[in-house]
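Technical note accompanying the year-one report. For the benefit of new consortium partners, we illustrate the data format agreed upon in the data management plan: each record pairs a sequence with a structure-token string. No post-processing was applied to the example shown here.
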Amino acid sequence: MRLPRVLTVAGVGVTVAALAAALAFTGHVNAAPRTQQARPSFSFIHSCAAAVGVAHCNAIVRVDGKVGSNGSSPSGYNPPDLQSAYALPSSTAGSGQTVAIVDAYDDPNAESDLGVYRSQFGLPPCTTANGCFKKVNQTGGTKYPRANGGWAQEISLDLDMVSAICPNCHIILVEASSASLTNLGTAVNEAASLGANAISNSYGGSESSSDPSYDSAYYNHPGIAITASSGDSGYGAQYPAASQYVTAVGGTSLTRANNTRGWSETAWSGAGSGCSKYDSQPSWQSLVSNITSVCSKRAIADVSAVADPNTGVSVYDSYSYQGLSGWLVFGGTSVASPIIASVYALAGNAGSVTYGSYPYSHTGNLNDVTSGSNGSCGTDLCNAGAGWDGPTGLGTPNGTGGF
């Protein structure tokens, strides 16, 4: 195997790829809102580089100045933490539900890594042999696309978050041939045809005039809860989160707190939000006055969950990429999207909901996030506040009643 070139920066060995990604990073991750408590400052890299004309995954991995070393034990939030933070009935709900994960390229170690994560936290096995896990390509076959280390990190993150939130759910992993929106969209259609109750999409790209046609071709699946990450670069819209047929998922910083809930959240400064240039405003958003006052089209996001890598989650990934493997800590709205898809599965009523509308009529079952910002737009599109706002939508799960 060809080893990555390594540079030494301030006494720390860093791969060239990791350094380039870190230097390209905009800095949103480390810019915690002033209302948050002080936390250690970590280093981060994006798992997938942004490229023109294709989607990129929204996973961010914490490196802690240790690029090239493996994590030997979990750090970050684990399943009991997430279940506690969002008051979820994870041990008793979800049977008979299937959550599909759509990503690009192949993770050769997906099933074995999933097994390590579930075993570590005492979750029931989810394997091909017992019928819980299924892995297919974008047309349902078993001739998988070429492997890709960055997307393998994304896949591990997604599978582990479904496991953390809905350990009783079945999981389908659909691997698109590439990161083009047409291939990823084809994979979404395949996930729907395989009977998924919820489909998570932890990727996005720039908006284009083609988006309305992609909506109808790939994301219009009534009776299936489809979630999409809002992005990790702060204020600004991306697709498919801008689709009127998905639940757009923003991001928060999640910390323990001395309050009744035991947790506190603020808007994560990297969470994507904005007003679509091309997608029509869904009817359920047109009833929200502070949405219509700032956006005449589709507004992002609808709901949110933890995404700040400073308050990241435990993930196991053995397919070494950028010198990282083993137990890792991840953030990004790639964490939030599979969490919300899995909460839909726990609720068990995706067949009767209309796209992303359900939370809008059940706001009492959400934790309203009222502080923090992801940009300087000067409106609710980037400033968290009571009710709906761009970075966090209507809020985060407080049980399953909002889904």
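Partners are asked to follow this layout when depositing records. Confidence is low (pLDDT under 50) at residues 1-38.
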